[in-house]
Amino acid sequence: MSHLIAPSMLAADFANLQKECEMINNSEADWFHLDVMDGVFVPNISFGIPVIKHINEHTLKPLDVHLMIVQPERYITHFKEVGANILTVHIEASPHLHRTLQAIKDEGMKAGVALNPHTNVEQLMPIIEEVDLVCLMSVNPGFGGQKFIEGTYRKVEKLKEMIIKANVDTKIEIDGGVTSANAKDLVDCGADVLVAGSFVFKADNPIQTIKDLKHL
């Protein structure tokens, strides 16, 4: 299966969200990526449950919701109710990760785990069989438009080796600084899902940019 493209709505024009959603619907993108930030776990505040509810009213593709918040387990049911198809929590914010992943799956969603740049992928070894998606942060989380961290390639390779050894279908998602300059290398290393925010929404032709990322 070819890799997936998930444009990050964090970089969208918030004054024209319906129009931005329609653009994604009409593109070759596979998912909508939604970054939820609380100003505590990361030094920024983005959008929350009410905004996602309204975005969902205008989307034709799965919602990939990435929680950059403390105590994410408190909100699992709420995000299911507003349309999340994939719900990702940070390993650094989830002391009872196995329980949280099971709670996400019990709500009928795919369960994801995100890792900050400094977090070693080996920490996923005990629970890799329970994870549908691993989101590797390739920038320090909190703000869009940051420079890609080159060490991400090796993390992707190591994680891919773990997934193959465990004989599971866990997808690897890359979030942060993805452009046409590194997308093919990331896919070649083993990435399955590319999240692109500023590179898509600030492009002269976002639909063509998504197509280019899809057909590397």
Question: Could you please describe the fold and organization of this structure?
Answer:
This protein has 216 residues and is an alpha/beta fold. It has eight helices and eight strands, in the order E-H-E-H-E-H-E-H-E-E-H-E-H-E-H-H. The chain has helices spanning 17-25, 49-56, 76-81, 97-106, 152-166, 183-189, 198-201, 206-214; strands at residues 4-7, 32-37, 63-68, 86-90, 110-115, 133-137, 171-175, 193-196. An eight-stranded parallel sheet has the order 1-8-7-6-5-4-3-2. Strand 4 (86-90), helix 4 (97-106) and strand 5 form a beta-alpha-beta unit. The chain is globular. The chain starts with a strand and ends with a helix.
Structure classification: alpha/beta
- % residues in beta strands: 15-25%
Write down the Rg: 16 Å
Please count the beta strands (DSSP E, at least 2 residues each).
Answer: 8
**Uncertain spans, ≥5 residues at pLDDT below 50?**
none
Biggest sheet statistics: 8 strands, parallel
Mean pLDDT: 95
Q: How are helices and strands ordered from N to C?
A: EHEHEHEHEEHEHEHH
Question: Which keywords apply here?
Answer:
alpha/beta, 8 strands, 31% helix
In short:
This protein has 8 helices and 8 strands.
Structural topology:
Layout: E1 4-7, H1 17-25, E2 32-37, H2 49-56, E3 63-68, H3 76-81, E4 86-90, H4 97-106, E5 110-115, E6 133-137, H5 152-166, E7 171-175, H6 183-189, E8 193-196, H7 198-201, H8 206-214
Parallel strand pairs: 1-8, 2-3, 3-4, 4-5, 5-6, 6-7, 7-8
